[in-house]
């Protein structure tokens, strides 16, 4: 069963089973500012992106709320994350401010395999089409890039 999620600016992530309140589970730690929560296709892992200087991308076990791993920063430096999501089973898209970049991350090697960098401002939203086209916003511009991955 997939549980609805809610995030707050107050460093907590909540999941709600149907017809039960308050939250069923709580993940403390992420500093979520934007569309920076994603559940993988299998429903077993949650990706969070945080607007902070370290441990900005983290994967959590959905069933227990235990942290599985921190995703390493890009070698170009860290970004404070506004948007992230799983892309298929093997990739992650993440974008943010400070370094103003959007990364395609390979989950198997935990490294960036594609990057939109030197953008004029922070990346506040991303979306992937069914054909693998990445749309990313920075300032007043929408950037489109073809990825080698389909959702």
Automatic annotation (TrEMBL):
Keyword set includes Glycoprotein: no
Keywords: Signal
This protein's record includes keyword Signal: yes
InterPro entries: WD40/YVTN_repeat-like_dom_sf, WD40_repeat_dom_sf
Taxonomic superkingdom: Eukaryota
Signal peptide (from-to): 1-22
PANTHER family on file: CARBOHYDRATE BINDING DOMAIN CONTAINING PROTEIN (PTHR47822), F-BOX AND WD-40 DOMAIN PROTEIN 7 (PTHR47822:SF2)
Protein name: Uncharacterized protein
Organism this protein belongs to: Phrynosoma platyrhinos
């Amino acid at each position: 069963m997939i549980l609805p999620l809610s995030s707050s600016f107050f460093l907590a992530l909540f999941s709600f089973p149907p017809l039960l309140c308050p939250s069923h589970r709580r993940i403390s730690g992420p500093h979520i500012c934007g569309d920076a929560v994603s559940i993988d296709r299998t429903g077993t892992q949650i990706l969070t992106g945080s607007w902070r200087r370290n441990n900005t991308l983290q994967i959590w076990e959905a069933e227990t709320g235990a942290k599985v791993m921190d995703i390493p920063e890009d070698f170009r430096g860290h970004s404070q994350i506004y948007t992230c999501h799983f892309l298929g089973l093997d990739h992650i898209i993440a974008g943010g401010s400070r370094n103003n970049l959007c990364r395609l991350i390979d989950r198997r090697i935990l490294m960036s395999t594609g990057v939109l960098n030197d953008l004029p401002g922070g990346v506040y939203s991303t979306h992937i089409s069914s054909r693998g086209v990445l749309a990313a916003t920075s300032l007043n511009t929408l950037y489109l890039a073809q990825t080698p991955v389909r959702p």
